[in-house]
Design goal:
CATH superfamily of the largest domain: Zn peptidases
Shape: elongated
Distance between the termini: 38 Å
Structural class: alpha/beta
CATH topology of the largest domain: Aminopeptidase
CATH class of the largest domain: Alpha Beta
Number of helices: 7
Mean pLDDT: 96
Strand content: 25-35%
Radius of gyration: 21 Å
Low-confidence stretches: none
Length: about 350
């Protein structure tokens, strides 16, 4: 977890440089440490990465097919949020699964482990774009791993409001992911820090909590811990949530505002427009978000999410500077911070 702790320390330093007092909320998890992970075909080993919520195996043999034996399926990282993916993982009748990365750019795109704490289905691994096909050849899949008890950290800033009777506001962004994920996570962190700067300059009337959560790619473990410490905040009469999601300001991306609440959706749209960066999409209020606020949505809580698209989503090549649009991030951060200040007045 060295990377997780280094990321937490960086965010703490940035928040403190703005004048904020920070706290850390640690939670435990059984970290997955991959061992031998490969698909062996005709004496050649194709390296892979485990699917982090699939069981391990020291070896499954069978033909490469589309359905039985060792199934080979091309999937983009976003497929994890579909019902078809769960059926494929749980009920498709194969003995093992090879996920071949599919997307706008080639590479090794990993799918989030929505059930990290409760692995399910057949053993499964990821391999790179074009690495293998369902061509009937005999193969052997190995996905060895161990679990190690450890901790991760959420970074939390609490700003006490002048009116404790008002409902709290939570400003949330994930700070963990696969690979470097510069565009995936960077824009949300910039928005989070700019919102913190703006709220320190104009202190809120209501209690306002900013949280940079770990465990995003592992079934939102950090959000689960944050909510467990604050029972009822995800409910209709709980907190109001601003979520800075994935890919904000990604080069070539599309920015969306997502909320089931008409007021919050309109307020964020208008604030971004005033800042010179209107959203490309204002999603219908019936849309169920796919990130952290999916959990808030299902609990009936009030939220507004900013989320974008990214041609390098979950790929190792999502790196500075090619994948980010810095002026766009600056405009979005300014608009989102202004909206947060108005909401907390």
């Amino acid at each position: 977890m060295a990377g997780d702790h280094a990321g937490a320390d960086w965010l703490i330093a940035e928040a403190r440089a703005l004048g904020a007092e920070t706290t850390q909320e640690a939670f435990t998890l059984d970290r997955l440490d991959p061992g031998d992970t490969y698909l062996e075909v005709g004496g050649t080993r194709i390296p892979g990465v485990p699917v982090f919520d699939a069981p391990a195996t020291t070896g499954v043999s069978g033909p490469l097919s589309e359905t039985g034996g060792i199934a080979v399926v091309a999937l983009a990282p976003g497929a994890v949020y579909t019902g078809e993916y769960r059926h494929l993982r749980q009920s498709a009748g194969h003995d093992a699964l090879v996920i071949v990365c599919s997307g706008t750019h080639p590479g090794l795109g990993l799918l989030n482990a929505e059930q990290f704490n409760t692995p399910y289905g057949a053993p499964a691994i990821h391999v790179g774009t074009g690495a293998i096909a369902a061509d009937g050849r005999a193969a052997r899949l190995v996905s060895d791993s161990t679990r190690t008890r450890t901790t991760a950290r959420n970074v939390v800033v609490t700003l006490k409001g002048r009116d404790p009777a008002r409902k709290p506001v939570v400003v949330m962004t994930p700070r963990s992911s696969w690979w470097q994920s510069t565009a995936e996570r960077g824009g949300g962190l910039v928005c989070w820090l700019e919102t913190l700067r703006a709220l320190l300059a104009e202190p809120p009337a209501c209690d306002t909590i900013l949280t940079g959560n770990s465990g995003h790619e592992l079934g939102h473990l950090g959000l689960d811990d944050f909510c467990a410490r604050r029972p009822g905040w995800d409910q209709p009469d709980g907190a109001v949530w601003i979520h800075y999601g994935a890919n904000i300001g990604a080069a070539g991306g599309v920015l969306s505002v997502v909320s089931a609440d008409d007021r919050l959706r309109t307020a964020m749209r208008d604030a971004l427009t005033e800042a010179g960066h209107p959203p490309d999409v204002v999603a219908p209020k019936t849309l169920v978000p796919s990130g952290e606020t999916r959990d808030i949505h299902r609990a009936g809580g009030r939220y507004v999410t900013l989320v974008g698209t990214n041609p390098w989503f979950h790929l190792p090549d999502d790196r500075w500077p090619a994948t980010v649009d810095v002026p766009a991030i600056a405009r979005v951060a300014a608009g989102a911070a202004a909206m947060a200040v108005r909401l907390t007045r």
